[in-house]
Amino acid sequence: MNTKVPRLLGAALAVAAAVVLPAVPAQAETVPSPEAFDDYLTGLVGTTGVPGLSAVVTHGADTVFAAGYGTDSNGDPVTEHTPMRVASVSKSFTAMAVMILVEEGAIDLDGTVAAQLPEFAMADPRAGEVTVRQLLDQTSGLNDTTIDVVELEDATSLEDYVSRLGDDGLAADPGTDWAYCNVNFNVAARLVETASGQPFADFMRERVFAPLGMEDSATRDEDVLPGLGSNSLFGLWIDREEVPGFLDDSGSGGIITSAADMGRWLASQNGEGPQLVSAAGLEAMHAPSEVQDYGMGWGIESDGSLAHSGNLMTYNAVEWIDPETGYGVAVMSTGAGLTDVTWAAMEGLTAIAAGEDPAEPGRDRQLIELALGVVALAAAGLGVLGVVRSRRWAGKRAGRRAWRTALRMVPVLLPAVLFAAYPAGVSFISGGRTVPWPQMFYFALPLTVTLMVAAAAGLAVAVARVVRLRSAGRAPAESVGSAA
Fold first, then answer.
1. How many whole angstroms separate alpha carbon 426 and alpha carbon 443?
2. Are 61 and 321 in contact (CB under 8 A)?
3. CA proximity to 306, closest of 315, 317, 294
4. Angle 395-399-400 (CA atoms, 0-180°, nearest 5)?
5. pLDDT tens-digit map of 29-52
6. Within a 10 A sphere around the Cβ of 26, how many other Cβ atoms?
7. Strand ranges across the sheet with 229-233
8. Domains of the chain with CATH codes
9. pLDDT of 392-419, one tens digit each?
10. Whole-model pTM?
């Protein structure tokens, strides 16, 4: 049998089928339903107890989900149009403002800041070598450890802010090391003002928000912010004013926006819808520096996606995009606690977008605060008991060598020592970021109160023991013995 005949016949039939039969389209990518995102967030809000939360999911140019949960401090329902502070998510907006002016030729991205902003002067001569790009990818050498960031919080404008850097220095040669420092983006925002001839707020409104249709957004709280954020103390959410500081019009953390507006921003960042800069400009903003996987206001994840969190004392936020799949996610909350629910929510939403099961939301905050509450109560109880027993303690040690008695005081004084070093310890854990005392009474309120109670209890016991020791030292020997 000639085997070429069936082969030729098969080939002919295949060609005929290809011509006659309609092509079968490739299976379209399945976008999860809005209900899938809503069910997850409804459970997360109920489990975590966050007072107000909003979120948006985009795919390409489309917003596939946007919603709000809970209430704001005025008791009004949170919706996708409720403006909230997004803290350091603002950095990517400031970078966009700079890049717009770069493409217009008003700013030289790789030129020095000092040449384009003469008022930028520091006590360190290396500051003259800092480039605009290094500000945006945080490799400028600016660092909380060598800058008085507490003084900067009293600034009344971006111009005033930059002028206060005159007696500060750099922590490293420009371009050689990465350090997260808000100063980078506030200097960049001032550069936007001088290069454009407009106040930063006006430039953002006219050149960023308006072209993208971001109608709920601003850079000053009195413009759009409907209420207060909050902190959790042993399970109770407390509405509070944001810690005083340089926020209005700041380039590092001043943006206030809504989930609906963030949807427009995320789509644009993924190269869809209205574009503020060229594709090359967008790519440059998303590219890592030579020393860190950090772009211009974006952290670059190991899977190629980009994300940036924002944490103030009473608000949390996060943004995420995946240029490969075209998905974008943003989550914002009106409550800031020991754990960041927005990051967990973002991870859950991205898992759903990828067709995966999200991790079940946990009660980490409640469990941590419950444990801290128990510790605080125990410390207070032990303090009372120690004061009550201080006479007996002193009687047993009357006449003993002073150094032995002093050693016995160390355990009760240790909590006070830890409390005194508390802000420095948190600053160290935060990678060198400066966290001053007032901030410890906001997002970390349960931990701060617990440490404070333990320190106060220990000091009370120590004082009571010293007073009893002095009394025992003045008393007759037989009286001391009977007291023991």
1. 12
2. no
3. 294
4. 100
5. 678 999 999 999 999 999 999 999
6. 6
7. 236-240, 229-233, 335-336
8. 34-353 (3.40.710.10), 364-483 (no CATH)
9. 888 887 766 777 778 888 999 999 999 9
10. 0.87
